[in-house]
Design goal:
Layout (H helix, E strand, L loop, with lengths): L1 H37 L3 H31 L4 H7 L2 H42 L11 E2 L2 H4 L5 H7 L6 E6 L6 E6 L16 E10 L7 E9 L5 E8 L2 H4 L1
Antiparallel strand pairs: 1-2, 2-3, 4-5, 5-6
């Protein structure tokens, strides 16, 4: 007579735990989005999303997986009542198996598929029109226009090993300028072998230094974190006369 009472209580606890986990998962996602919305500057939004979004997404997805495991532990109670408590332990085993499989599925989704979505969001934030303190829409300068607004150290840094990218935004009406720095080598790009956004620069080297009359050459070595594919790309370093 005690077994049905135990199972009823068990199922009730599983329902509570399921609801709690779903609530926690939603709160994690909302907390992340709140922190993004709270930042008014698009560069600050960009840096925050780039640094934290995958981590928060991973936390929330794992909490949802645990919610599914709790809910699965409330199914088939009628079978347990009619067939015996052995099925209670079978259900526990199946739930643990489900949790293990779901963990690897979510891990693959976060590490392999989600970066593509994240990169689209980052590109959108990077190209979102900036507004100057005077309220004017600013213009993002083209690559050949930027050097006139960068100092020598910034120009050199763009061409150095593990180079960075600088975006220059200009308010044509007032002359107000905003320079934003992006660590280009931290970003994953689409792998030409597997098609996932899991390929990053792991080494850069200058194969030919630029001179006053000739462009230089920067060799970038890429490696895919998923399929381990490697490839080399060459980038042009503007000649010194164009960098000063």
């Amino acid at each position: 007579m005690e077994t049905p009472h135990f199972l009823d209580s068990w199922d009730q606890y599983m329902y509570y735990a399921t609801a709690a986990c779903i609530g926690i998962g939603v709160i994690i996602l909302l907390y992340h989005e709140y922190n993004v919305l709270k930042k008014k500057d698009y560069k600050e939004k960009y840096d925050y999303v780039n640094e934290h979004e995958i981590r928060y997404f991973w936390y929330s997805m794992m909490v949802f997986v645990v919610a599914g495991a709790f809910y699965a532990n409330s199914l088939g109670t009628d079978l347990i009542m009619t067939k015996g408590m052995i099925w209670f332990y079978v259900r526990l085993f199946i739930t643990v198996s489900f949790l293990t499989i779901a963990y690897f599925i979510v891990f693959s989704m976060v590490q392999i598929y989600y970066p593509k979505y994240l990169e689209k969001r980052l590109v959108k934030l990077r190209h979102k029109p900036r507004i100057s303190p005077e309220g004017n829409a600013m213009r993002r300068l083209l690559e050949h226009e930027e050097d006139a607004h960068l100092d020598e150290s910034q120009i050199a840094e763009e061409a150095s090993v593990h180079s960075v990218d600088y975006d220059v935004w200009l308010d044509d009406a007032t002359g107000f300028k905003k320079v934003e720095k992006y660590d280009a080598y931290l970003h994953a790009i689409e792998c030409t072998n597997c098609g996932y956004f899991t390929m990053k620069v792991y080494l850069e080297e200058i194969s030919k230094k630029p001179t006053a009359t000739e462009n230089g050459s920067l060799i970038k070595h890429f490696k895919c974190n998923y399929c381990k594919h490697r490839e080399v790309q060459e980038a042009v370093i503007s000649k010194l006369s164009e960098n000063i």
